[in-house]
Amino acid sequence: MSARRIFARPARFAAIAPYVWMVLFFLVPFAFVLKISLSQTAIAQPPYEPVFDLAAGWGALKAAFAALSVDNFRLIGSDDIYVFAYVRSLTVASAATALLLLIGYPIAYGMARLPKNWQAVAMVLVIVPFWTSFLIRIYAWINILQHDGLLNQILLALHLVGQPVVWLSTDTAMYIGIVYSYLPFMILPLYATLAKMEPALEEAASDLGAPPWQVFWLVTFPLSLPGVGAGVLLCFIPIVGEFVIPDLLAGSNSLMIGQTLWLEFFTNKDWPVASAAAIVLLVVLLLPLLLYERLQKRQLEQGR
Amino acid sequence: MAGTMADELPNTHVATKAADGDAVAAGRPLLRIESVVKTFGTFRAVDGVSLDIKAGEFFALLGPSGCGKTTLLRMLAGFEAPDEGRILLGDKDIAQALPHERPINMMFQNYALFPHLSVRDNIAFGLKRAGMARVDIATRVSEMVALVKLEGLEKRKPDQLSGGQRQRVALARALARRPQLLLLDEPLAALDKKLRESTQGELMELQRRLGMTFIVVTHDQEEAMTMADRIGVMKSGKLAQVASPRELYEAPRSRWIAEFVGDVNLFDGESKLRDGHRLVIGTRDAGALVVAEPREPIGAGKLAVAIRPEKVKLSRRGPVSEAGHETAINRLDGVIADICYLGGTTTYKVKLDTGGTLQASVANSARLDVDAYSLNQHVVAWFTPDDCMVLQS
Predict the structure, then answer these.
(1) Roughly what angle, to the nearest 10 degrees, separates helices A271-303 and A80-112?
(2) Is the ipTM of this structure higher than 0.90?
């Protein structure tokens, strides 16, 4: 099909546009990163070799290809620092996502049961924090959590603690920051599924003899699973790669993979190893995504 | 829904059935609604309704949208609690009981089938909640599936069923627990006309065979007339009239009911004159009309004379022999102004010489229309005093 025909039909072009976007802004950059991950670090500009130089001719290009190796991946596999960082990232992301689900579900459920015009208000309240810069909000948390911050002042005033508690540079602070920042991403998809659920379904369950907790477990929750899946993915994946929140709120004795990447890139200037670590992270994150896809497909097939 | 299910159904009410038996023994109604009021903000959705429902009755709540019939039904199911009044099921006041505590089940307007459960699991849902043994559940589910003729579809999910099949699943699910009372909220509204008519018959047969008490909410007066033993007409939160279909149609208690149930010709009257057992009412649009004295005495004030279109006879010359001996007959001259052929009947609109219009519905008893009237033809419309209803405006 000629280019002219594609562009002559807006509908066809619209169907192709997302793929063009994906190739330009995902696959091409990915190829760059993959290539860098197979290179070796060098004191040069750019700080790695070999460099593909199309002007240098076919022979040079072939030599450059031959110089690529998977050494960086071997290094990542053999060095505990990276393995620990991955494990910690996945652990933190799992725990934080579980917390988000526990906190976000009741909020989304409550929102979906509000009168229609109040739902809009609640929606705005959930979204409004986005209007402030993310960094400022995290710095605000530093303020709240520091030694003489708001939280300790309140706890002391209420005589709940005898002396200020150390919050900053702990995992607790990091979890607070993560849960706070990602809550809207959990609430919104949950709210969307819960709000469009027919209220008569819950009534039917209770009419058929189910007490409230059974109505929830047997009808409401199973029917909200698509929302749960979307919310969990929307939170889990970015949290695994989260850099800012752990860097500002957590201690420095154990790092998440995002922080490790930062160190390799900017402190060690080791672009190839950092690229390799990023590629491994991508592969690790693809797994839950594929799992979710598989699950959804099976659900659809069961429905047939 | 043919079969012999009803006779074989063992009487194993999941819910308490003591109340049921006592009530029947004492000749009391199964369900007694006493001056129930429900307000939403300042709006009185149900405004002092009292009603008795007998065991085994097929009762219809009929009314336009917003009349409070659905709110009343939802109070019976337990989704709304009345602000005032009592709801007695047998001896027990259930007004404040939660839905899952009531031996009442409901068939929802859009069926509210659980989309994530199969037909089998939808029907078994209520049985599992009642703690029935697994074997008994399986038996009961297959009974129900047979009852509503859904054999072979047990494993399907609701979105793989047609509208009519979904309706049957909803019915089976609501009946599975053998409720003392089954509530049906617009049960046929989502079906097309042909299916609706056949399902009406099936519902009636099922109700009779199971000997169960049905309360159906509908806005469709034809549906209510076809199925119900008694009809309660609701208007603005109040019961306007509770009567059998025939009584409702032939002796509506008010002008509003006469207009709501079926078609009717209405002539506002200004004066009243007694002549033996007859009343003469002077109307603006149809002159003086002779009507039979109504059973209930009529107060002074504005009146309306109502005649159903099918009670009006048309002829070219005037009243003919079959009622020829009738002395006090209402005879109105006019011209055919509009003809509406409906297949079984033809509705003529007659422009009366006295100024009003009169609708006459004539059965098309002959295939060839040699006797049909044509536009602008002069006709005589007539009806007897007994065919007239006198209504307080």
Answers:
(1) 40
(2) no
